[in-house]
């Protein structure tokens, strides 16, 4: 066996490991907690956020009056385009790994090319892991009845970023800015 075949085999295995980590990261839960303050009264802020969430398809689940918590639930859909992309990527990777194995071990014949069939499994895996029920939790931390309020928001990171960018000016929301400035 040539050293170039072995190095190609090792690199192809590393690419397969990278694909596995990418699949895991694509369906990872990214729930984040952030504290937000506003100069507006708590009822105005809570009703503004509630209306915005309901307009985006979130359903009010209830809450806890003693803890001053409101909860919303919604289904997180998977991206069909990403599922197809991952399936194609996995099929190509399986085909490449199969070709390298065929070159390293010619006795096996064409059987390693069956690894191309792993492609649809990657899309199905992503689809099952990414489709889940998410929740948004609004907790009133402190307030002075007529002037200002502090909320603790617990939700998916992308939902918090959308909330901060769309409602920030209307509801005078202020946070530490870590969601928008973070590179991830």
TrEMBL record:
<keyword id="KW-0812">Transmembrane</keyword>
<dbReference type="InterPro" id="IPR021919">
    <property type="entry name" value="CCB1"/>
</dbReference>
<feature type="transmembrane region" description="Helical">
    <location>
        <begin position="107"/>
        <end position="126"/>
    </location>
</feature>
<feature type="transmembrane region" description="Helical">
    <location>
        <begin position="76"/>
        <end position="101"/>
    </location>
</feature>
<feature type="transmembrane region" description="Helical">
    <location>
        <begin position="6"/>
        <end position="23"/>
    </location>
</feature>
<dbReference type="Pfam" id="PF12046">
    <property type="entry name" value="CCB1"/>
</dbReference>
<keyword id="KW-0472">Membrane</keyword>
<keyword id="KW-1133">Transmembrane helix</keyword>
<protein>
    <recommendedName>
        <fullName>Cofactor assembly of complex C subunit B</fullName>
    </recommendedName>
</protein>
